[in-house]
Amino acid sequence: MSKSKTKSHKTSLTAAGRKEADTKAKKKGGKGSKSAKTPVSSTTPVAENRKAKFRYEILDSIECGMMLTGSEVKSMREGKLSLDEAHIRITNGELWLVGADLAQYSNAGLWNHDPRRARKLLVHQKEFNKFAGRAFERGLTLIPLRVYFNDRGIAKCVMGLVKGKKLHDKRETIKKRDTDRGLQRAMRRG
């Protein structure tokens, strides 16, 4: 009997020792704890401008906030945003999302929003200076690439500085996409 008591006592001590080591590692931020792993950011996609990759060459992109009304946020949560004809315009030192179609929220009633109104985008001054200065260069423009809700539930827009593709560039993109699909099919079969 004494052996079994000692054995179980020894096991509980090691388990307690493991718990203590884990709590020390958590406080120090060490590698030994399971909860010290970096949290995975979760985003909820709302809309994506899929034609942008085909029509434009994306040079640079940046994440910016959006100023929205309550009914706009609720409509975005239902996924009723279209970025097909949207672009970004610089007016009086501010960025504005123009041409995005955000359908009216069905339960808003009297306090509903205008579906095609311009929405203000929020960026830091340093980022604004960088992108606004380059946007006035010949052939470059700003467009929204995608809109999503971040892990805190805040609406964000990824803005891209793009250059329009010529017809032959679009043909090269189509050829490359077709060859990539063929390679993927061959890899799956063989």
From TrEMBL:
Region (Disordered): 1-46
One GO cellular component term: cytosol
GO biological process, one term: trans-translation
Keyword set includes Cytoplasm: yes
InterPro entries: SmpB, SsrA-bd_prot, SsrA-bd_prot_CS
Residue spans of biased composition, Basic residues class: 1-10
Molecular-function annotations in GO: RNA binding
Swiss-Prot/TrEMBL keywords: Cytoplasm, RNA-binding
Membrane spanning stretches: none
Predominant localisation class: cytoplasm
Top-level lineage group: Bacteria
Subcellular location per the Swiss-Prot or TrEMBL entry: Cytoplasm
PANTHER family: SSRA-BINDING PROTEIN, TMRNA-BINDING COMPONENT OF TRANS-TRANSLATION TAGGING COMPLEX
Alphabetical list of NCBIfam families matching this protein: PRK05422.1, smpB
Sequence similarity: Belongs to the SmpB family.
Function per UniProt: Required for rescue of stalled ribosomes mediated by trans-translation. Binds to transfer-messenger RNA (tmRNA), required for stable association of tmRNA with ribosomes. tmRNA and SmpB together mimic tRNA shape, replacing the anticodon stem-loop with SmpB. tmRNA is encoded by the ssrA gene; the 2 termini fold to resemble tRNA(Ala) and it encodes a 'tag peptide', a short internal open reading frame. During trans-translation Ala-aminoacylated tmRNA acts like a tRNA, entering the A-site of stalled ribosomes, displacing the stalled mRNA.
HAMAP family from the UniProt entry: SmpB
Protein name: SsrA-binding protein
Primary gene name: smpB
